[in-house]
């Protein structure tokens, strides 16, 4: 076991604070990583504050990890000491059920193990990336091919894959009109990736002051979703909508914009349900509502390589570890452009 510094929540309503934790010895299949940067996902906040009612404490959030490999086990062939590596939302899965065999470990029938908060169906806690180091099975470690701007690569490990995976699943590409709802961490990656896939991207926001940014990030049009006239102009016209909103809201206003047979996929995970959508809006156009969870390890590597090739990183605001509680408050006000990333070198200043 080795000691490492971390920031942890001890209960739903205590601020995150310094905690010394233990990492396991490097086993034959393990990669040890010194964490350089960790992105701040809204899921971190949902978990730290027990909004999904399943948090194990102490809770060390963080699942957008980029760092340097410091040790490898004897079976590890594809990483070496000194490599830059990434870790996303998962650190293990059963490896034998049919989704695992297909490489979609996020749908593991026995429950993947989250980078934090342990196995999804319950079990021993795991402690995430708001820490100096982590030890992870090589199967769940990603290669980073970006040459620089590594802090801005970190959010690809969750925000990037959570938007890339449904965009691929629903075969988004040239000639399609695609909506992205919410310009936060996930949404801004969705805009960049869908635009790079060749789609005509329309960004829906509740924040009129994000209009210029959305256009710069790759949206062809921006719609303020609180404005009924702007919304009505797009009725029945979308091939696909990806909804990243982190709070319950009226889904009908977006469902009405889908064409016949088109789908809106929800990736936002609010702590209480959306109001039930109008069934007539669905049945008269055979519209579909779907969900999507992060992405498998192979697809995460594909996304990282796609982003490296297309020069895509996240738009970030770097923060010291000590500012995490203020960052959470700003995230709740949609005051993030567009992902906070923690500079993990600052963690030792709290020691
Ligand atoms: P975020 O940075 O806080 O962005 C969420 C955006 O939603 C905000 O920037 C805002 O955009 C919009 N929004 C917030 N409150 C709203 C409201 N009341 N009504 C309408 N729009 C609102 O969060 P994130 O990190 O992107 O995460 C988004 C959600 O996805 C969270 O619930 C998170 O837990 C979840 N998530 C799911 C997966 C998955 O695998 N499915 C993975 C990661 C995260 P505008 O200002 O543009 O309106
Ligand atoms: Zn996340």
Structural write-up:
- By secondary structure, this protein is of the alpha/beta class.
- Helices cover 23% and strands 26% of the residues.
- The chain is built from eleven helices and 17 strands.
- It has helices at 42-48, 98-101, 150-153, 159-169, 185-196, 211-217, 228-232, 252-255, 279-283, 297-309, 324-332, and strands at residues 2-8, 17-23, 30-40, 65-72, 84-87, 90-92, 113-114, 133-137, 142-143, 177-181, 200-205, 221-224, 238-243, 258-266, 288-291, 316-320, 339-343.
- Strands 3, 4, 5, 8, 9, 16 and 17 form a seven-stranded mixed β-sheet that branches. A six-stranded parallel β-sheet has the order 12-11-10-13-14-15, covered by helices on one side. A two-stranded antiparallel sheet has the order 1-2.
- Strand 16 (316-320), helix 11 (324-332) and strand 17 form a beta-alpha-beta unit.
- The radius of gyration is 20 Å and the shape is globular.
- The model has no long low-confidence stretch (mean pLDDT 97).
- The site of zinc ion has 5 residues, from loops.
- Zinc ion binds next to loops.
Tell me the number of helical segments per DSSP (H or I, 4 or more residues long): 11
Query: Average pLDDT value?
Result: 97
How many beta-strand segments? 17
- Strand % is 25-35%
Distance between the termini: 19 Å
Helix content class: 10-25%
* Ligand roster: NADP nicotinamide-adenine-dinucleotide phosphate, zinc ion
Biggest sheet overview: 7 strands, mixed
> What overall geometry do the principal axes of the alpha carbons give?
globular
The unreliable regions are: none
- Alpha carbon gyration radius: 20 Å
User: Topology as H/E string?
Assistant: EEEHEEEHEEEHHEHEHEHEHEHEHEHE
Q: What is the oligomer described by this structure?
A: single chain
- Return the structural class: alpha/beta
């Amino acid at each position: 076991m080795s000691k490492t510094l971390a920031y942890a929540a001890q209960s739903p309503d205590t601020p995150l604070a310094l905690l010394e934790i233990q990492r396991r010895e490097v086993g034959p299949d393990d990669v040890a990583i010194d964490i350089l940067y960790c992105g701040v996902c809204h899921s971190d906040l949902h978990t730290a504050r027990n909004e999904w009612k399943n948090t194990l404490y102490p809770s060390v959030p963080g699942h957008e990890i980029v760092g340097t490999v410091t040790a490898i086990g004897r079976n590890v062939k594809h990483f070496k000491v000194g490599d830059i590596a990434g870790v996303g939302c998962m650190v293990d899965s059963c490896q034998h059920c049919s989704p695992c065999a297909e490489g979609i470990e996020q749908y593991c029938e026995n429950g993947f193990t989250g980078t934090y908060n342990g196995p999804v169906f319950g079990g021993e806690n795991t402690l995430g990336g708001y820490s100096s180091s982590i030890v992870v099975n090589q199967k769940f470690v990603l290669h980073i091919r970006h040459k620089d701007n590594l802090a801005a690569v970190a959010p690809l490990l969750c925000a990037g894959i959570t938007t890339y995976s449904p965009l691929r699943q629903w075969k988004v590409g040239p000639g399609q009109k695609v909506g992205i709802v919410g310009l936060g961490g996930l949404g801004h990656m969705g805009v960049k990736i869908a635009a790079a896939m060749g789609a005509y991207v329309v960004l829906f926001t509740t924040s009129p002051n994000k209009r210029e940014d959305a256009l710069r990030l790759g949206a062809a049009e921006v719609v303020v979703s609180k404005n009924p006239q702007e919304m009505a102009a797009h009725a029945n016209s979308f091939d696909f909508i990806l909804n990243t909103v982190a709070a319950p809201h009226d889904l009908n206003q977006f469902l009405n914009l889908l064409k016949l047979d088109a789908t809106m996929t929800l990736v936002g995970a609010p702590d209480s349900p959306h109001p039930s959508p109008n069934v007539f809006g669905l049945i008269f156009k055979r519209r579909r509502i779907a969900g999507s969870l992060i992405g498998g390890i192979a697809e995460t590597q594909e996304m990282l390589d796609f982003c490296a090739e297309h020069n895509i990183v996240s738009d970030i605001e770097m923060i010291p570890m000590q500012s995490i509680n203020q960052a959470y408050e700003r995230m709740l006000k949609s005051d993030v452009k567009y992902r906070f990333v923690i500079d993990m070198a600052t963690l030792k200043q709290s020691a």
